[in-house]
Amino acid sequence: MSTRIELDLEGDWAEITLVPPSGSKPTLDHAVLDEIDHALDDVLASRARLLLLRSATPKHFCLGASVGALSVLAPDTVPAWIEHGHRVLNRLEAIDLLTLALVEGYCLDGGLEIAMACDVILATPDARFGLTRTRLGVATYWGGAARLARRVGDSMAKVIAMGGRVVDGGEAHRLGLATVLDSLEGLQEWVEHLGEDLGASSEFAGAEAKRLIAMGSAPSSPEYMRAERGAAVRCLGRRDTRRRIQDLLDQQPVRLSPTGMPREDGSGSAEPAPAEPKPDPAPGLDVPVRKLKF
């Protein structure tokens, strides 16, 4: 039997759980990759703003390829395996939601590649991370080497990948592999605060920001400037953005001169007027999300 995927959708919250057969550990094969891909379809069709990936077994997040998948890998079958994993993980990485991987135990090889395709890795002190395939005589399959280098730097990525090293949650956090290190209760509190931040922010603008970050271009490059200009135009063309800006201006009125600067008569430093109650959001506008929890 293969690991199966459970999807929980509740309002703004989406959760994908890796559920192994009884007494086993979560592993990956073509069927599991397909299930993850289908779960992403459902997430995108929902109202979710945050996606959490976790395991049903705290001691093991995911150990990579299953015995069945590993046993059939050969020079003529591995290309399809690599292409399938790249397609699913690249989609996970590019999804407009903020994605988090919760790692409480062993997160190795393909499991680590899935976690690194998420925006944030949450780790407990008991977490263990590693790319151990070199001990089997193979390199990474699904972008693991590149994503690891992006998080910890080229030198440390070589140490981990070439030596098949496994690091604990504390070291992973020091290296930058894990974003947040805390107890499970502390991580839950961190995610709840994140939910409050997301609720106060524009979902559309957040997605634009994520795409700009993913570009990896120098801010001075013409390509990045064009992308940022396009994002700004799209954001400012939205009714929600105009409402947010107008709300701010209504709370802090400033009289501007024809040059766009506050007038020298001091009128630009007037005390903010009391904020009037905000009307209910119009249909189609971004609205705050509820508090999130595990």
Characterization of this structure:
The structure is a single chain. The chain has 294 residues and is α/β, with parallel strands linked by helices. The protein has two domains: 194 residues, Alpha-Beta Complex (2-enoyl-CoA Hydratase, Chain A, domain 1); 65 residues. 43% of the residues lie in helices and 15% in strands. It has eleven helices and ten strands. The strands form two sheets. Strands 1-2-3-5-7-10 form a six-stranded mixed sheet, with helices on both faces. Strands 4-6-8-9 form a four-stranded mixed sheet. Helix 9 runs antiparallel to helix 10. The chain is globular and about 65 Å long. The C terminus is likely disordered.
Number of extended strands:
10
**Are there runs of 5+ residues with pLDDT below 50, and where?**
263-293
Average pLDDT number: 87
Largest sheet: 6 strands, mixed
Classification by helices and strands = alpha/beta
Alpha-carbon distance between the two ends: 27 Å
